[in-house]
Amino acid sequence: MNVQRWLVRQEPQWSELEALLNRAEKRGVKTLSADEICQLSRLYRMVSADLARAKTRQVGPSIIDYLQGLTLRSYSQVYQGRKRQDWRAIVEFFQYGFPRVVQDTWLYTVVAIAIFIISGAIAWWYSWQDSEFMALVVPPDLIDLVQNEGKLWMGSIVGLEPLASSGIMTNNISVTFATLAGGIFGGLGTIYILWYNGLLIGAISALVSQNDLAYPFWAFVFPHGSLELPAIFLAGAAGLLLGQSILFPGRYKRLTSLKRQGALAIQLMFGVVPLLIIAGVIEGFLSPNPNVPDAVKYVVGLGILAALGLYLFWPLPKSRFP
Hints:
The protein is built from 12 helices and no strands.
């Protein structure tokens, strides 16, 4: 394929689509005529194919990024205009849309994971070297319970499962949305939350290891953590997307960049919430259950993590967008 010739041929149609999208987003899709709506649908299908072709031919990140933005915006307007049944739109989103946006924003997720792991490793190392550092991060009552009584704190959930589960869900959802909102501050708030949570996990890991409680501790964490931690990382990716759009808008105006990246961030969060709800149920009912052997909890956690990985990163049909 002659890339320059292809660009010359396709760019006028991309510009036409962008003009229609600007009108639809500013005034509403109902302000478009019937012919313009049909043209919008046709151009959406065309730009979807162009995006697949651009990725295959590796024409350059700036063009791919531009086409990805057009595709996402077109998808929103076309399916809003068609007034598809809500349940069908939701099913299609979780079948194709959520995995697609996770795959398209994987680099931001990797950065979020790296921030978490680095801070956790630092906390782990310093907690082994200096007990005073651990006391700065871990609540004193947890340290006292583990060091002086040789117990973990999960037993307090047993007998209060429904109440604990709902409280856990609420807390986790609030944390992830705070992680997203932190992106408005150039990503600094997002980085802080990821860093702090990494420090906390690292210090607690050192605490339970020092007191020979690592095996039951991770048996508790694995079942729900296999969903909860990826959800936090995806929320971190959403926050970093917002931060990047503010600090490094690229070829777009800052507001336009924020709208484009914000659309991706919202889709990530829409997929994250169900993960947190499921994780909250598991953490309230399965993770602390003393009647479930620790080995079973490890197997369940690893199985859930493997299933989540397959769901999010299984290759999708190129004809499905976004």
